[in-house]
Amino acid sequence: MSHGRRPEESERIYTRRFWLAFAANVMLVTANALTFRFAEFVRFLGGSEETTGVIVSVGLVGSLFFRAFLGQALDQLGIRKIWIVCSLINITGSALVLTAPDVGIQIYAARIIFVIGLSGMFASSVSHIQHLAPLSRRTEVIGTFGASGFVGMICGTNLGDLIFHLYPESRQLYHVLFGISLLASVLHMCLAIWLTRSERHETPSFTPPIHKLMMRYWPHRVFLVTFMMGMGFAVTMTFLTRYSTELGLSGIRTFFTAYAVTAFTVRLVARQWSRTVGRHRLICMGLLGHAIGHLLMTFVTTDWQFIPPAMCLGFGHALLFPCVVSMGAGAFPEQYRGTGTTVTLAAIDSGTILTAPVLGWIIDHFGFFAMFYFVSGSLLVGAVSYLALTSKLVDSDIDIKTKSESQETPRAAKVLEPVQVTSKEPARVRP
């Protein structure tokens, strides 16, 4: 897969093309953030929390099946074609959600189609952005680009709360909500078409089956982290709106505004930490932030009390996503980077698939507090486990020159040999 020459280390990466891709992702995440009210819609149609969890899981299962082909389609056909097709699929799913009459076959089908399109749009945009930076700055550019998601999160959640404030609980409310989401997806597609207008795609001469690529390149320990991330997203993007309603609060805009502002700030401040601190440590810090954030949810009684847990969760998200995508997708060779990206994003979704129905069941039978305790404890165990698994590993993203100059210790000298081994496979992590 190629867009032309990859930028050199000394070249600017924050060009007009980058900022247009940034704006396109703002549109995409705004569209998705408006659907954070999906659980309210299911409730309006007569469904329960467990029903919502099942619908969300079914949608993600459909996207996982699609991603088994999506990665290789990106490698074989190029980003432009897949990006446009997936945008059209997502728009179709939005239209079906908009017109769903009840908790029946249409809403399940609509959710599957919507998420399939969304997964392809995200994978295409992340694959596109990775090529705008040299290999040594891949984690940085993914992190900076990801800050656009937090801008979209602020726009989408505040707009959603405004719509809920302006309209009474009715079919018209959801027509407006999902109609604006559909419009934002259309704007995203227009920007994607413009961004890829000059794409020059080189098809690999041979593409092995996805399971062989996964066995050869996928860093399996990363799955623990993606599973934990998926569980956290099941809480914030599916059940948080129901928790707010249960408490009698005004909505979720306070939480997601604090979440996004914190994550945006941390993303900018920490954009080069992967080269000094290392991605393994950043992942442990991110999981710990998530564990604390979900625990603090149990103390919320007013809107402003959403701010402390939101800051913890935003901090965790800011560190986790670029590290995980960089380690997962970057472990694959350049010509199979589309497969690597989709496998990594699918691994995150698998965490949501497996946990959303369970979390919905816990809420229905034991309440929201039990769900938050369960999630917080699981994330803490995940952080400790990942720390144990990676305590003796050296991250290939660490800038060796900076490391050796700042820490003249025997350990710094030992880093040289393993990292040099990664020159053939620059994103692989070696002991």
TrEMBL record:
One of its GO terms (molecular function) is transmembrane transporter activity. Keywords: Membrane, Transmembrane, Transmembrane helix. GO terms for cellular component: membrane. Residues 404-431 are annotated as: Disordered. Its main location: membrane. InterPro entries: MFS, MFS_dom, MFS_Exporter, MFS_sugar_transport-like, MFS_trans_sf, Tet-R_TetA/multi-R_MdtG-like. Pfam families: MFS_1, Sugar_tr. SUPFAM superfamilies: MFS general substrate transporter. It is a multi-pass membrane protein. It is found in: Membrane. Residues 16-394 form the Major facilitator superfamily (MFS) profile domain. The chain crosses the membrane at residues 20-39, 51-70, 82-101, 107-129, 141-167, 173-195, 222-240, 252-270, 282-300, 306-331, 343-363, 369-389. This is Major facilitator superfamily transporter.
